[in-house]
Write a structure and sequence with these properties.
With 391 residues, the protein is α/β, with parallel strands linked by helices. The chain has three domains: 3-146, 3-Layer(aba) Sandwich (Rossmann fold); 152-261 and 284-290, no CATH class; 316-390, Orthogonal Bundle (Rna Polymerase Sigma Factor, Chain: A), CATH 1.10.1740. It is 46% helix and 15% strand. The chain is built from 16 helices and eleven strands. The protein has helices spanning 13-23, 40-49, 63-70, 81-89, 105-112, 123-140, 149-157, 191-194, 204-212, 214-227, 265-273, 287-290, 304-315, 319-335, 343-358, 368-390; strands at residues 3-8, 29-36, 54-57, 76-79, 94-97, 117-120, 143-146, 166-173, 234-238, 244-250, 255-259. The chain has a seven-stranded parallel beta sheet with strand order 4-3-2-1-5-6-7, sandwiched between helices. A four-stranded mixed beta sheet has the order 9-8-10-11, covered by helices on one side. Strand 3, helix 3 and strand 4 form a beta-alpha-beta unit. The longest helix is centred in the C-terminal third of the chain and has 23 residues, at 368-390. The chain is globular and about 55 Å long. Bound molecules: NADPH dihydro-nicotinamide-adenine-dinucleotide phosphate and magnesium ion (MG). NADPH dihydro-nicotinamide-adenine-dinucleotide phosphate (NDP) binds at residues 9-15, 36-39, 58, 84, 98-100, 103-104, 121-124, 148, 200, 202-203, 205-206, 264.
Length: 391
């Protein structure tokens, strides 16, 4: 039987890798909805090619462009964030959540209510609202499968195991663009330098987050939320080759590692075919040719984001939503040239302290409305912190 699939964030790096896998076996799928934001040409091309029912852009002002691009194809067009939520709620067997940032939370949440399968690349949803996402999935009988490579690796290492037998979880980090830079030079890092990753080909925002380690900070929180282990059980290990994605350590001392090429089509394909395994078009590693793997302890002076992740987990409540909103705002500031690379973590730290001091809402019940409100307030606080630091 053909499976109905929807891809949220179809025009992005994860979205395009997902489409690559679907396109290779198009007879097996009916594409329900594809969503994007600015890249109307790509969205329309893929929607026509894959015979999607509907294509949706996040931007209201691009609806006419999308309609023009889809003219005569029979694919419906829609625009705006409410239309993306509606697309996410259209009946589908498998939904990929691959919008970047907190904008992915509401559509992912809508998709979880379908009681089918949500493949989750949007780690921000778990960082901002982990418990809400897990509870909603459980309530509706939805299977939520991690797509982040580290979390897919942990998930795979845990198949057939009891979570109570887990002693620790180690997630690896390449170290990003500035792993080997002298510390005093970090201040001078440019946008172009921060936007190039040594191993992975990803969207610009997550690539910069890899250089600052905010990506890993988010993934530590994602690990805690998804697998429900204690923060002290989660370790980060710098592994420049990005071939071991994560390791799970058990009470008997065994470490199960997941090894594979840095190609997101593995984790996406695993989630697409789960619980079966299917052949995937990824490189087969020649370990003898690779020769050796390197490991290093992470340096918290170079990467303060890792300390901020631990402080965020210790503070609890909706501090994850604060960390994410402050990080997204600081990243916007760096991309716009208003902040130095090293100032991003300072803005996040300032925002976390201020919100913990002044905003009691972060300790309230976690609901979509409250998380959205905390996200909004944290963005305002982060913008004020940027003005203060820059001025
Ligand atoms: P990209 O920036 O490449 O793509 C983001 C997608 O979201 C695009 O389809 C974009 O549309 C869309 N989008 C942007 N802003 C909005 C908005 N406000 N509302 C709705 N849609 C929007 O990101 P990635 O594919 O790199 O990352 C997607 C998610 O997956 C992130 O959460 C990231 O952390 C996670 N992830 C990514 C990995 C990777 O290898 N890239 C690895 C692991 C996790 P458009 O392009 O048309 O503007
Ligand atoms: Mg990852």
């Amino acid at each position: 039987m053909r499976r109905k699939v929807t891809i949220l964030g179809a025009t992005g790096s994860i979205g395009q890798n997902t489409i690559d896998l679907i396109r290779r076996n198009l007879d097996a799928y009916d594409v329900v909805a594809l969503t994007g934001a600015s890249n109307i040409a790509q969205l329309a091309r893929d929607a026509i090619d894959l015979k999607a029912d509907i294509a949706v852009t996040a931007h209201d002002n691009l609806l006419d462009d999308l309609r023009d691009a889809l003219a005569g194809s029979g694919v419906q067009a829609a625009a705006g964030s409410a239309a993306i939520d509606e697309a996410a709620a259209r009946p589908a067997d498998w939904i990929m959540s691959a919008i970047v940032g907190a904008a992915g939370l509401s559509p992912g949440y809508a998709a979880l209510k379908q009681g089918t399968t949500l493949a989750l690349a949007n780690k921000e949803s778990l960082v901002c609202a982990g418990q809400l996402m897990l509870d909603t999935a459980a309530q509706h009988g939805t299977r939520m499968l991690p797509v982040d490579s580290e979390h897919s690796a942990i998930f795979q290492a845990l198949i057939g195991e009891e979570i109570s037998a887990v002693e620790r979880i180690i997630i690896t980090a390449s170290g990003g663009a500035f792993r080997d830079w002298p510390l005093e030079k970090l201040e001078t890092a440019t946008l172009a330098q921060a936007s190039s990753h040594p191993n992975w080909d990803m969207g610009q925002r997550i690539t910069i987050d890899s250089a600052s380690m905010f990506n890993k900070a988010m993934e530590v929180i994602e690990t805690r939320e998804y697998f429900k282990v204690r923060p002290d059980q989660i370790e980060v290990l710098v592994h420049p080759q990005s071939m071991i994605h994560a390791l799970v350590g058990f009470v008997d001392g065994a470490l199960m590692a997941h090894v594979g090429p840095p190609d997101m089509r593995h984790a996406i394909g695993f989630a697409l075919h789960h619980p079966a395994r299917a052949a995937l078009p990824v490189e087969r590693l020649d370990l003898a040719a690779i020769g050796s793997f390197e490991f290093r302890a992470p340096d918290e002076v170079r990467w303060p984001a890792l300390r901020l992740a631990r402080e965020t987990m210790a503070a609890g409540g909706m501090n994850g939503a604060v960390l994410n909103a402050a990080k997204e705002t600081a990243l916007d500031g760096f991309i716009a040239g208003a902040l130095k690379f090293t100032q991003m973590s300072q803005i996040v730290e300032d925002t976390l302290s201020q919100m913990q001091r002044d905003c009691s809402l972060i300790r309230d019940t976690m609901s979509l409305d409250n998380v959205t409100q905390v996200d909004h307030l944290a963005r305002e606080a982060a913008k004020a912190a940027i003005t203060k630091r820059a001025g």
